[in-house]
Specification:
alpha+beta, 5 strands, 41% helix
Length: 112
């Protein structure tokens, strides 16, 4: 199976939010940290919403969560880790659950 993977930059219309997103298999994939930045909330808030989405069986974790290898600088070393990324279905579901103007703006952008 050929996989098409690329990174794009998302910037909010007002320029306040800018982040890199992973595009693979025709969907967007974000980490919890990226969703926190996108919606203007803390990572623990995003984590709680994701847990509830899966606990309430709104979405199936196996088809909406994928691990991607990422290299990041930790101290003076490059460290490779597998990081959970969530697809557009989860991003939109989290966006509807967060209570913020930034979340509303982001959802409008993502759904169009």
């Amino acid at each position: 199976m050929e996989q098409n993977s690329e990174i794009i930059i998302y910037e909010a219309p007002d320029g306040t939010t800018k982040l890199q997103v992973q595009l693979e298999d025709e969907t967007v994939w974000l980490t919890q940290e990226q969703m926190a930045q996108l919606f203007g909330k803390g990572r623990s808030t995003i984590t709680g919403h994701i847990i509830n989405i899966y606990d309430e069986e709104e979405l199936e974790q196996n088809s909406t969560c994928r691990k991607f290898r990422r290299v990041r600088l930790e101290g003076s070393r490059d460290v490779e880790r597998e990081i959970d990324h969530y697809n557009l279905d989860v991003i939109i579901s989290v966006g509807y659950r967060v209570n913020s103007k930034q979340g509303t703006k982001s959802n409008r952008y993502l759904c169009n």
